[in-house]
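User: Show me a protein chain along with its predicted structure.
Assistant: Here is one chain, sequence first, then C-alpha cells.
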Amino acid sequence: MTTTHDGVRRTARDAGLVAALSALQAEQASGALPLGPAGHALLPESVAAAAHGVRRGARTAPRERTAETTLRTVRLYGDTLVALRHPLPPGPEDPDDPWALGLARLRLGLSEALLDSCLEHLSARTFGGSPLLVRQLVQDSLAEALTDHLELGELLGPGAGLTGGELIALHRAVTRTDRVLLRLLGGHGFRTDGPGQSAHVSELLADAYAAAPAAPEGAP
C-alpha cells in the first residue's frame, strides 16, 4: 500500500488504523521507531518488535532497548499496539518531518471512516417512528463533521506545508470532530468492537506524536 499524498488517508479509511500505521511506518521510517517530540512511539506490536533504530524527523540513531520503556499495550480489533518511550536522537528538530504530515492524513482518514460508520449505524435506526437521519440535531452534527473533513482535507492536500503548531491544531480539530461523531453513536461507539475503539487509539497517536511542547520549568 502506498502512503503518497492521500494514500495513507485512503488506507486508513478503507483498511483501518493498524494497516495504515504499518504502511506509514514502512514508507517513512522503515526499520525504525518513529518518535514523537518527547520520545514516545505507538506502533503495532510486530512492527515495533522488528525496529532496530529510532527516528525523529531527519535524526536517526540505533535503538537502545535497555534505555527504552514500555508504557502500555492497546488492543484494537484483535491486533495489539505497543506504546514505548525511547531517548531522542541528538540534533535539532526537523520542521518538515514527513511522518508528522502522514500521521495527520492517517487520522483524517480514520475520522472519515468514523463518519461512514455513523451513517451506516444511524440509517438503520428510528426514533418516534422517524429515521434518526432526518432529525435536525443529527443532520447538524453530520454536516459539521463533513465540513470539518473537507476543510482538513484542503489543508492536507498535495504540497501541504504546515508548521508544528498548525499540525497540533489540526490534530485537535480531528479529535473534536471524532467526539462529535461518537456522540451520535451512543453506546455502540464505545463497545470493544465498535468504532469508538479506533477513535480512542487515534487520540493516543495524537498524544504520542502531536502533543504541545511542555512549558519550560518555572514558566507561569
